[in-house]
Amino acid sequence: MKTQIITLETHDDLISVRDKLSWAKTPRVLLVWPRYEEISLRILDLKVLQRHTNSLGAQLGLVTRRANVRRDAESLGIPVFDSTASAQKDLWPDPAPRMRRIPRAPRRDLRRVRAEVYEKEASWRQSLPGRVLIFTFGVLAILAISVLWIPRAELVLYPESINQSVIIPVSASEAIDSVSITGSVPDRKASIIVSAEQSLAIVNEISVPRSKAQGIARFSNLSQKEVTIPAGTVVSTNTDPPVSFVTLHETLLPPGVDEFVDIPVEAVHPGAAGNVAADSIAVLDGQLGLLVTVTNPNLMKGGTESKVTGATDSDRAKLRAVVEDNLRREAEAKLKAQISPGDLFLSDSFELIQVLEESYDPTAGKPGKQLKLNMQIEFSARYISAEDLNQLSLAALDASVPLEFKPYGVPLFKPLAEPLTDTSGVTHFDLEITRTLLRRIDSMQVFSLVRGREPLQVKDELTTDLSLRKDPQIFLSPRWWPWMPLIPFNISMVIK
């Protein structure tokens, strides 16, 4: 008899093996277990594969040497062989005969059984008047529920109000850590860096050096030795400030007291300041001053200057004042915008901390038709936070609230005069605090007065029983509904 051999692999499971069996077209199907690999098929899986093979009209057999698989297969009546050759030579046991289920004959008395099981409905319920009556009761029940739950109302009350006001002296300092009921509050410091670049047209004239003054310096020997005077030796006048000159070349001073030599010199800086009178040069720098003396027998001349358009000290001072004033206003505005809207800015604490940059173009002594200033300054100021002032205000106001009233809204506070800071850094001012108080209203009393009544009657009751400064307002939903809701949950009360 033809037998299809299916060799199993390690990754095979119940689903893959069943798919392989579905392609079998022979009356016998032989599943071959790999010798050195393990297949994860349980006894329940073997039972499913046996039934699936039977449904295909074939008989299932196994080839394996694994004891546990052989034991499971034999318990299910599946033939097991040692090899494929023996499976083809040996006889297979006959499969167990299939049991055929014989269906029962259908019952013919189902209507009678149903009539016996189910109780018949009352005749009045099946009649048209009965059905109309039940429907009417259902509609009335829905309407009753709608009357209770659908209507809603908003009740706006305006209870009696009074103004609460108090004035307290306040002292603020960075040394204070927390708010005190006595009026002590901490202040905070804020700083900002602002910069600007501004120009100024120059209309003045300044003197600009053109050439250096020149002349002869006479060096006299104070010793019996020959002295070398190198080029670049600096000599100067004894005026304040001194005018300096340098020798133009190296010279040997002969030995002997009062021996002298004349050396050409030139002013260090150009300009008319180098034109000095005779015998004005008297100072010789360094160790050389111990060996020789110096003077100028003649006038030092040749230093000249020219008039050009340029910035004077007054121009730079004028531009600086304008830029600093602009930066001051800008810094103050930015500091006020930097803090919170309710914070109290202490104007008298606003000050200049340091000038970080101040550069002029052109620099002093240079010609130019436009003076440009680039300036950067750091400013600082102190302020009191709105949170601290609000905490102080609540502490002062809550101490004097009447029992029949309650606070409404947040307190308003403002200084009566500009805060002033003393020499010790403590700021003093008087703070005026105001708040609105509303008379307390018992919500349960209000609900008991308004529920289920007409709006006009509700207004009269509330005006009579409560102390109101204004007639109450009622908003019904839907608008055409004539009564207030019966359930307090559907009535919202707003206090203004």
3D structure, described in words:
Among the domains are: 3-89, Transcription Regulator spoIIAA; 113-148; 188-202 and 311-383, Translation Initiation Factor IF3, CATH 3.30.110; 208-306, Elongation Factor Tu (Ef-tu), domain 3. Helix content is 26%, strand content 36%. It contains eleven helices and 25 strands. The protein has helices at residues 14-22, 43-55, 67-75, 84-89, 110-117, 123-126, 128-149, 313-338, 386-398, 443-450, 455-465; strands spanning 3-7, 28-32, 59-63, 80-81, 152-159, 161-173, 184-186, 188-201, 205-211, 214-221, 227-229, 234-237, 244-247, 251-253, 260-267, 281-284, 292-295, 304-309, 344-361, 370-384, 405-415, 420-421, 427-439, 468-477, 491-495. A six-stranded antiparallel sheet has the order 16-12-13-15-10-17, with no helix packed on it. Strands 6, 7, 21, 22 and 23 form a five-stranded mixed sheet that branches. The protein has a four-stranded parallel sheet with strand order 1-2-3-4. Helix 1 packs parallel to helix 2 (43-55).
**CATH architectural category of one domain:** Beta Barrel
CATH topology of one domain: Elongation Factor Tu (Ef-tu), domain 3
The count of β-strands is 25
The CATH class of one domain turns out to be Mainly Beta
Largest sheet: 6 strands, antiparallel
Strand residue content: 35-45%
Strand order of the largest sheet: 16-12-13-15-10-17
Helix/strand-derived class? alpha+beta
Alpha carbon gyration radius:
57 Å
Q: Assign a percent range to the helix content.
A: 25-40%
Number of helical segments with 4 or more residues: 11
Spans where pLDDT lies below 50 across 5 or more residues: none
> Span between N and C termini?
101 Å
Q: Overall mean pLDDT score?
A: 87
Overall outline:
flat
